[in-house]
Write a structure and sequence with these properties.
Strand order of the largest sheet: 4-11-10-9-8-7-6-5
Radius of gyration: 23 Å
Largest sheet: 8 strands, parallel
Distance between the termini: 22 Å
Number of helices: 20
Mean pLDDT: 94
Low-confidence stretches: none
Shape: globular
Helix content: 40-55%
Oligomer: single chain
Length: about 450
C-alpha cells in the first residue's frame, strides 16, 4: 500500500458528490436519482412500461444467474486499514490506450428506446458529462455516428454482434473506425437469444417493432440486403392471408400498430415508409442475420486482418477460453455472463474473474461486467483482478428517472463511493487495490 506524508485533507469526487447532495437537501431537494441501489431499481421500475422493465431487468430462465452475480459479491468483504495518513486518491487508469478518470465504463445495452425516446444519445450525453467512456451497442437505437457526436471528446468503444453476413461485419467495423471508436468489443455469448421468461410471457421482442436496429438500418451493406429481399419478394401475399373474421380484425389492428412502429423508426418519412415494404423487410432481415450461431475461434482469428482497433472479447467465463484468447493475440477480455440474461445457472461473473485472473496472471487486460451496482462493488472487482468495471442496468435506471442527467448521476454516485471506499481503507491509487491488501472471503 502506498504511503503519503500527512497533509491537509483534499476534496475528491466522493466528498464533492456528498456535499452537492447534502447542500440540495438543506433546500428540501432530495436527489431525483437515489444513491441506494435497491431504491434506484424500485423507482425506475415504476417509471418503465412492463415491456421495458422485462427487457432491462429480466434474466434467463428462473433468474438464478442474476441472483448469483450479486451473491458472488456478498462472499467477499473489505478489510479497511487505519492510520494510513493518506488524504488524496488517484482514480485514473488507462485501458488499451483509452484514458479513464476512474476505472468505470458504461456497458452496451440494446433497445434502450424502450426506456427513453433518445436513449443512446442521452446515455452518451450523460457519460460525456461524467467523463466516462461508453461502449455503444450494436443493438442501439441511434446510428453510431450520431451517438459519437454526443460523446464529444470523451472516448467510446463499439460492441459488435457478429452477423451471418460477413460483409455486414466488415461494414460495421469500418463505420466504427471512421466514427472514432477506440476499441472493438466482440460479444460472444449472444449467438442466440437466451430463454428470457419475462419477455416471453409478454410476447415482447423490441426488435420486431423496429426498436434497437438503428445501427443496421443506417448501414449500407444491411440496406443492400434488405432491398435485394424486397425485390426478390415481388408481390408477396399479405401476412394476414388465411385469417378469418374477428381473428383477422385483431390481427389487422396488431399488424397495423407494428407496421406503424416499424415505419416511424425506419430512415425516411413515416408516410413514405408506410407505403414501402422496406421497414418490415428490414426487421425480418435483422432477425435473420443479426447474430451468428456458428461463431467460432476461426472467425475471431480473422480480426487482425479486419481492424486496426484494439479488440476485446466479451462473454468469457472459462479460464481455458481466456487463455486461448490471449494466445491468439486478443488485446483484452471482458468477463461477463450478459447480466444473467443468456444462460440460467451460469457461473457468476465475479467468480469467473477470480479463476481467470489466477490463470492469466496480472498482465492481460481483463474487465468485469455483470452484477456491478455500487462503488464498493467496483472496489471488490478491482481487488480481485479487474482492470475496470462495466455498469449496465444501473445507468439505464438513471436514464428512466432523469434522462442524460440521471445517467450522469448514477456514474457520479458509483465513482463517489469508490473514492470514499479508497479513502476509508487507505488505498491511494487503483494499483493499490489488491485482494491481499483489502479483501477477505473464499480461500
Amino acid at each position: 500500500m502506498t504511503e503519503q506524508t500527512p497533509s491537509e485533507p483534499a476534496i475528491g469526487p466522493g466528498r464533492t458528490r456528498q456535499s452537492a447532495i447534502y447542500r440540495r437537501g438543506t433546500l428540501g431537494q432530495p436527489p431525483r436519482v437515489p444513491t441506494d441501489p435497491g431504491e434506484l431499481e424500485g423507482r425506475a421500475r415504476r417509471e418503465m412500461s412492463a415491456q421495458a422493465w422485462a427487457y432491462v431487468s429480466g434474466g434467463a430462465g428462473a433468474g438464478a444467474t442474476v441472483r448469483a452475480n450479486r451473491a458472488a459479491f456478498d462472499r467477499w468483504q473489505i478489510v479497511p486499514r487505519m492510520l494510513h495518513g493518506n488524504t488524496t486518491r488517484d482514480l485514473r487508469t488507462e485501458i488499451l490506450g483509452t484514458p479513464l478518470a476512474a476505472p468505470v465504463m458504461l456497458a452496451p445495452v440494446g433497445a434502450a428506446e424502450l426506456v427513453a425516446p433518445d436513449s443512446d444519445l442521452d446515455i452518451a450525453r450523460g457519460a460525456s458529462a461524467a467523463g466516462t467512456p461508453y461502449i455503444f451497442s450494436t443493438q442501439g437505437c441511434s446510428p453510431m455516428e450520431e451517438t459519437a457526436k454526443a460523446m464529444g471528446d470523451v472516448p467510446w468503444w463499439f460492441q459488435l454482434y457478429w452477423s451471418v453476413d460477413e460483409g455486414l461485419v466488415d461494414s460495421l467495423i469500418g463505420r466504427a473506425e471512421a466514427a472514432g471508436a477506440k476499441a472493438l468489443v466482440v460479444t460472444l455469448d449472444t449467438t442466440m437469444l437466451g430463454w428470457r421468461t419475462l419477455d416471453l410471457d409478454l410476447g415482447s421482442l423490441p426488435f420486431t417493432q423496429g426498436i434497437g436496429i438503428a445501427q443496421y438500418t443506417s448501414d449500407p451493406r444491411f440496406m443492400e440486403i434488405v432491398r435485394e429481399r424486397v425485390a426478390a419478394a415481388g408481390d408477396e401475399p399479405s401476412p394476414l392471408a388465411g385469417t378469418k373474421g374477428a381473428e383477422k380484425l385483431i390481427a389487422a389492428a396488431s399488424g397495423a400498430r407494428t407496421l406503424l412502429n416499424q415505419s416511424r423508426r425506419h430512415p425516411g418519412g413515416t408516410r413514405d415508409n408506410l407505403r414501402s415494404a422496406e421497414p418490415r423487410a428490414a426487421v425480418e432481415t435483422f432477425l435473420d442475420i443479426y447474430s451468428n450461431p456458428g461463431l467460432s475461434w476461426a472467425h475471431i482469428e480473422t480480426l487482425r486482418e479486419r481492424t486496426r482497433l484494439p479488440v476485446l472479447l466479451k462473454g468469457i467465463l472459462h479460464p481455458d477460453d481466456a487463455q486461448r484468447a490471449v494466445d491468439l493475440g486478443i488485446d483484452g477480455i471482458i468477463v461477463s455472463n450478459h447480466g444473467g440474461r443468456q444462460v440460467d445457472r451460469s457461473i457468476a461473473s465475479l467468480d469467473a474473474l477470480v479463476s481467470i485472473r489466477d490463470r492469466l496472471g496480472r498482465d492481460p487486460v481483463v474487465l468485469l461486467d455483470s452484477g456491478i451496482r455500487t462503488g464498493a462493488d467496483v472496489f471488490v472487482a478491482l481487488a480481485l483482478g479487474a482492470d475496470a468495471a462495466l455498469i449496465g442496468r444501473p445507468h439505464i435506471y438513471g436514464l428512466a428517472l432523469d434522462g442524460a442527467k440521471g445517467v450522469r448521476d448514477v456514474i457520479d454516485n458509483v465513482i463517489a463511493e469508490l473514492d470514499l471506499t479508497m479513502g476509508l481503507t487507505g488505498a491511494v491509487s487503483i494499483a493499490d487495490i489488491t485482494r491481499e491488501g483489502f479483501l477477505t472471503g473464499p480461500s
